[in-house]
Amino acid sequence: MKQQRLLIVLVSMALLQGCAAAVVAGGATAVVAAQDRRTIGYQIDDKGISLRANQQFAEAGLNEQGRINVVSYNGVVLLTGQVESEQVRQQAGRIARDLQSVRDLHNQIRVGSPISLSTRSRDSWITTRVKSTLLADGDISGLNIKVVTENGEVFLMGLATAAEADKAVEIARHVDGVQRVVRAFELQ
């Protein structure tokens, strides 16, 4: 009987912790959305752009010809990855450019073999280090800068002032492992 009560208490605590985590995560998402310089409409459009691009890449058979990543921020689309040929790279660019709500395109897809899992892991680590350094800096709004790393190249995008963009580039340049920094900002 005691063991059943203990089990019920433990299960209840676990369930309540899940609820608390959901409330905290939901609240954190709302705070990030409120801090975002993009309108809610653009935030939703950006999700849709990425989904539609990936769907159209799959329908066109581009996924079998390489690895393409799509990031959209305020209607500005960044394509990264590796594909088999220049023709595939250009086709991906045309598909992305023609999507509804796309205002600008940075086609940074490289022709070549897909990068290894270890390289992608290193890229994730670089992104984490750049993003955390941006968030810790008091002179810029790190929440409004999207960081994407592909094969040691760091792409910075978002809505920023000229001073914020310059500072973000300088920060990214000094992170170990960064080979190149590419600006894809929309300056305010």
TrEMBL record:
Q: Which InterPro entries match?
A: BON_dom (IPR007055), Lipoprotein_DolP (IPR051686), Transpt-assoc_nodulatn_dom_bac (IPR014004)
* Ranges in a coiled coil: none
Question: Keyword annotations for this protein?
Answer: Lipoprotein, Signal
Source domain of life is Bacteria
Domain BON residue range list:
45-113, 122-188
Q: Where is the signal peptide?
A: 1-21
Q: Which Gene3D superfamilies match?
A: 3.30.1340.30
| The protein, known as | Division/outer membrane stress-associated lipid-binding lipoprotein
Species source reads Alkalimonas collagenimarina
Classification from the root reads: Bacteria, Pseudomonadati, Pseudomonadota, Gammaproteobacteria, Alkalimonas
Recorded name of the encoding gene: dolP
